[in-house]
Amino acid sequence: MATPRKKKVGAPKKGAIAKAERRQQILDAARDVFSKRGYAQTTVDDIVAQAGVARGTFYLYFDDKRAAFAELVDRFAAQLATKIERISTDDPERPVADQVRQNIRAIIGVCLAERVMTKILFTDAHGVDHEFQTRIVSFYDTVMQLLIESLKDGQNLGIVADGEPRVMAFLSLGALKELLYQAVTLGLSEESADVLTQQMYTFLSEGYLRVGEDPDKVRKRKLARGRP
After folding, report:
1. How far apart are CA 164 and CA 167, in angstroms?
2. CA distance 228 to 224
3. Alpha carbons 30 and 11: distance in angstroms, whole number
4. What number does CATH give the domain 65-224?
5. Under CATH, to which class is 14-62 assigned?
6. In which residue ranges of the chain is CATH 1.10.10.60 found?
7. What integer pLDDT is reported at residue 127 of this predicted model?
8. Which of 30, 111, 142, 191 could make an S-S bridge to 68, C-beta 3.0–4.6 Å?
9. 14-18, 30-34, 127-131, 185-189: range with highest mean pLDDT
10. Are 58 and 52 in contact (CB under 8 A)?
């Protein structure tokens, strides 16, 4: 009697892999065309020509160019979100200053590595399409919320000066946007991330950051906020 063949458990089906690869192929093409032509001037025909697929294939994965753009933005935002780590003041092996630099370096690193998306979001964000503008606003709202929460945590930890976190977030995002805009426009390489990180860190340290202060001052600030 023949022994029945065992099915592989947990292995993705070939069809699923093929679909994921095709979806990524279309997204890569859309990203490149959006970068070259701008969102408003890009058509589905441009995207399928770049991807080397039929128009019908595009519509198997996306309803229109807005849907492809929305997924690109969402993925980029998710990349940024996963790079930001919560600051700890209780780890003697990880100075707070190093943790702050690490977060800044991670954000700049993602933006330089994904310079096409950075260009689209930071230099081509003034299109005529209402849906485009809505997606851009949603992206910045997500980033703003991450910044605000990080600043609130910093205030509670005593490493960020008193003040309105939303205003600080606006100022920080404005500075970072301009820095990244110039970096992408000038074609700076990923190797420049360390220099840009140090410049951004110095800028923030001379503003609201209170990293490297006397521990007693930090402790008093935490106590004033009701934290031990």
Report:
1. 6
2. 9
3. 29
4. 1.10.357.10
5. mainly alpha
6. 14-62
7. 53
8. 30
9. 30-34
10. no
